[in-house]
Amino acid sequence: xxxxxxxxxxxxxxxxxxxxxxxxxxxxxxxxxxxxxxxxxxxxxxxxxxxxxxxxxxxxxxxxxxxxxxxxxxxxxxxxxxxxxxxxxxxxxxxxxxxxxxxxxxxxxxxxxxxxxxxxxxxxxxxxxxxxxxxxxxxxxxxxxxxxxxxxxxxxxxxxxxxxxxxxxxxxxxxxxxxxxxxxxxxxxxxxxxxxxxxxxxxxxxxxxxxxxxxxxxxxxxxxxxxxxxxxxxxxxxxxxxxxxxxxxxxxxxxxxxxxxxxxxxxxxxxxxxxxxxxxxxxxxxxxxxxxxxxxxxxxxxxxxxxxxxxxxxxxxxxxxxxxxxxxxxxxxxxxxxxxxxxxxxxxxxxxxxxxxxxxxxxxxxxxxxxxxxxxxxxxxxxxxxxxxxxxxxxxxxxxxxxxxxxxxxxxxxxxxxxxxxxxxxxxxxxxxxxxxxxxxxxxxxxxxxxxxxxxxxxxxxxxxxxxxxxxxxxxxxxxxxxxxxxxxxxxxxxxxxxxxxxxxxxxxxxxxxxxxxxxxxxxxxxxxxxxxxxxx
Length: 537
Known about the structure:
This protein is mainly alpha-helical and 537 residues long. It has six domains: 2-62; 64-141, no CATH class; 150-291, no CATH class; 293-369, no CATH class; 373-454, no CATH class; 459-536, no CATH class. Helix content is 57%, strand content 11%. It is built from 20 helices and 19 strands. A three-stranded antiparallel β-sheet has the order 1-2-3. A three-stranded parallel β-sheet has the order 5-4-6. It has a three-stranded antiparallel β-sheet with strand order 8-10-9.
């Protein structure tokens, strides 16, 4: 039906053209010259013109087809060699060179594009059209749909492992979570991590916002459990809390785009973080711990692991645990298993009172003991007997945690007749005890206890003895060596101390040099050297 209508229209147009020609003949019927010219144009000029037009049209069609094919090939090759991407939310362009992603401006892309076209020359007349076409195609290439190369992926994994995560599976899981957040998947999940990771997560947020415009991508990470959290939606993330944040911040800033693109790649590759976690039994066992265990399950596991009930007999009245110690044992349990505190203290104490005999007056649980009690009670006794707060106007006293472990072991050995602990203490547990039982003492970097002295070791006295002995030694040497150097390096002084110290314990090089800065302040030159004038002081 439509074909017949088209034919009717063409006939109507042809009739109009014939009518126009007939009108021209009527117009010039009395003008012989114009009739001759009209006939000439119809019989000679018009056919020739139409032939030329037809040939030119065919050439243009062929040229257009050729340029279109050339343009398509050029665009395909250009976008393959130059991996450009775009994000519409911030109207920014990005480039990937096979190793690293970076932000680029539209002007940078146009310059690269026009430079490439100019070298080829074929598309010069279509360069504007080609530019518009390529920019349009780039804007259809979402940055977070790009696929990073293996080198980029491994670089990001190595950035986080083993610095922050103990396994590569944990790194990939974390990246998948970040990718899910960027791509708006599983917003109902809550990821519980340690408080000290907050700076790290905030830095990820900052970098993501700066380079992509996406905000609050770590908003579903929390560092403290809240009773409003549904256990079924809770996931555990075991990020190391001993983060050297400044170093990590620099690396994250440098590799931020790579980090985010690898994250979204993993999210696409594994569908979502919950799908990925099922790929590893060890990972899922920890990550889904709260999903698979109720509060009561966790409480019962604590009792099985850390508390031992003793038969209820009068003679067993001596088996008891004070609430403060019980609270600490609970902290040890959740720390050892890298769990958040998912039971409020009041609830925890209530559950204990329901399970064990309790005396409100003494705030003590009876007929119970714990394998951790000898260590805890012995360490508290060691601390109270040997550690004193000490401040010096000129020099800050301090003890390192690993030094404290050694001193505790010595104290246990010296008091073995009254102690039940073997004397073995790790830095992690010692730090927990100090923070819980002696919170007024300042600990920095989880390593140095400030303004304390231990009666078992006079560190200042050791250093003074070493300096006095060294001074006498060097005085004697200089009498026979007139060509001796005028400066003594800190390294040489510390080396002399370690070789000639008279106690079992060794002062760290950092603390020793810190003391030299104060004790020999008048003789220090070039920061790390002592003038030999000290020898005659």
